[in-house]
Amino acid sequence: ITWQHEAVGNNYNAEVGYIPRNNYYKIAPTISRFFLPKGGIVLSHGPQFTSTIYTNSKLQQTDHTLLFNYLITYRDKSTLAAVIQNDYVELLAPFDPTRIGKTKLEAHTKHQWNTVGFDWISGPQHKLTYALSTRAGGYYADGTILSVTGDIGYRIQPYVNIDIAGTYNHINLPLPWGVNNFLLLGPKVDVTMTKKLFVTAFYQYNEQTKNINFNTRLQWRYKPASDLFVVYTDNYYIGPVFV
């Protein structure tokens, strides 16, 4: 059993944005129950309930996420979880649920929906690693969403680490939004040239914002805990941008 709470006053300003809003209370209790088999491929399994609840200063609820999952952890540290989730949002400002410049939902409108899915993550110690996550169910404005996120990586010891991540969202909303499909792709390569010299290259294609970003970074660790970074970034749009 765990408990986390947070209170942010009306005049608090985080400056750098780590606290995106003020004047709220937050509680996040969690309870889990694990069973430990004495043999077999399963290391542990059991239910977990996690909740995150926000209220304003008058203790009136503005947001919550209630998540129930059944988590199975295998002896190679890979995991499989079945997930049921309930979300509630009272919008504090106008919001476009597609985030591409279409009509915005009005502030203070209330939205609640349920989603189901699963998470499958491989053991982190293997050269080939992978993860797959799916969610299907409701969305803003009585819409629906199907979301699939995947990641696959391969390590060529001890020099190269290759990783490809992707997310696909199929969002079905009433007019004027309609049906929207968004793809996000992000391959990444890390190269260890020496014990002190490293290169990272990252490419991202975002269909939602019609944006392509390419980032490369050279890191020189000239002495312990001291690094010099040289970074090159190319960021551009490939189509009309809605504002």
Mean pLDDT: 93
Number-wise, the strands total 14
Estimate the global geometry from the Cα principal axes: globular
Structural class: mainly beta
The DSSP helix count reads 0
Radius of gyration: 22 Å
Distance between the termini: 45 Å
Percent of residues in helices comes to: under 10%
Order of helices and strands: EEEEEEEEEEEEEE
Unreliably modeled segments: none
Biggest sheet character: 14 strands, antiparallel
Fraction of residues in β-strands:
over 45%
What order do the helices and strands come in, and which of them pair?
Layout: E1 5-8, E2 24-27, E3 30-32, E4 42-55, E5 61-74, E6 79-90, E7 110-121, E8 128-138, E9 144-156, E10 160-172, E11 179-192, E12 197-206, E13 211-223, E14 226-237
Antiparallel strand pairs: 1-2, 2-4, 3-4, 4-5, 5-6, 6-7, 7-8, 8-9, 9-10, 10-11, 11-12, 12-13, 13-14
Structural description of this entry:
A hairpin with a 6-residue loop joins β10 (about 160-170) and β11 (about 180-190). About 0% of the residues lie in helices and about 60% in strands. The protein is built from no helices and 14 strands. The chain is an all-beta fold and about 240 residues long.
Write a brief structural summary.
By secondary structure, the protein is mainly beta. It has strands at 5-8, 24-27, 30-32, 42-55, 61-74, 79-90, 110-121, 128-138, 144-156, 160-172, 179-192, 197-206, 211-223, 226-237.
